[in-house]
Design a protein that fits this description.
- Strand 8 (78-85) and strand 9 (89-96) form a beta hairpin.
- The protein contains no helices and 15 strands.
- By secondary structure, the protein is mostly beta strands.
- The strands form 4 sheets. Strands 4-5-6-7 form a 4-stranded antiparallel sheet, with no helix packed on it.
- Helix content is 0%, strand content 51%.
- The protein is globular.
Amino acid sequence: ADGQVAAASRLGAVLLRAKDGRWRALRSPGIDSLMCVTEADLPDAELLAVGEFGTLLRKPPGKNELVPVPTGDLPPGSLVSIAGNAKAGWYVALQTSTDVTLFHTAAIESGKWTALRKESVAFDIWRGANSFWMWGDKAGMGYAVSAGPIRRLDYGSGQWTDYATPNKER
């Protein structure tokens, strides 16, 4: 809302760009690659970041650091994306081998995670690699796999909607 931009990066850092265009790095205690960062409106976090080896970090308000968040009963794997909010709960995409599983928890700290959906990102000899994308906004979150379809969750209703890809192509 204030015009800053945040980007996940390698070596356990989140890059922040201020409104004046200057960049600075927020460092975590580790060097795991971070895959995604999202804003959070929580009493103890204004940003959440996820990455390889189940890394889940938060940026405390007014501080220039990233601190680990206990992941509760989330299974091992690499976290590739995060979306959500305090009211709807939090959604993470966890990759293990050739599968990405979408998990949900009501509370991010030491959460009790529920698996919602599983998607294959395995290499297909005829179609090539399958990629996974996930995004969120104030109204909901969505994800897609190269093979389609595009799936969207409305936070308010809790309903999932599937959309075909343009021309039903990859």
